[in-house]
Amino acid sequence: MNSIKVLGTGCPTCQRLLNDVESLVENNNWNAEVEYITDIANIMSYGVMSTPALVVDKTVLVVGHPGPAKVAELLNNAINA
User: Fold this and answer.
1) Where are the domains of the chain?
2) How do 2-7 and 32-37 pair as beta strands?
3) DSSP letter for each residue of 35-80
4) Residue 1 belongs to what H/E stretch?
5) Strands 53-56 and 59-63
6) Residue 51 in contact with residue 8, Cβ under 8 Å?
7) What is the pLDDT of residues 25-60, one digit of tens each?
8) Which DSSP state fits 11?
9) Beta-carbon-side half-sphere exposure of residue 20 (alpha carbons within 13 Å)
10) Residue among 80, 23, 39, 27 at smallest CA distance from 57
11) Residue 33: beta bridge partners?
């Protein structure tokens, strides 16, 4: 099972990334657990200084929200690697 984390502070962009990730996991039937991390110390432990950020299995894939198509591509590559 893959571990997917969305790092964010609760801003609208963070929420949008979380919603996109949850939809992608559900629609693709990926065996993954999605977690939303809002604790600043935990976020900073990934070396991330701005949010949102997308992490799969402890690897930061992207900081910011590049759009649903790019998020789908990044997740697909990470999960099916």
Assistant:
1) 2-79
2) parallel
3) EEE--HHHHHTTT--SS-EEEETTEEEEES---HHHHHHHHHHHHT
4) none
5) antiparallel
6) yes
7) 999 999 999 999 999 999 999 999 999 999 999 999
8) -
9) 22
10) 80
11) 3
For residue 47 the two structure tokens come to 């070396």
Helix (H, G, I), strand (E, B) or coil at 34: strand
Residues 6+ apart with CB under 8 A from 12: none
- 3-state SS class at 3: strand
What CATH number belongs to 2-79?
Answer: 3.40.30.10
Distance CA 67, CA 72 (A): 9
C-alpha angle 50/3/17, rounded to 5°?
40
> pTM above the 0.90 mark?
yes
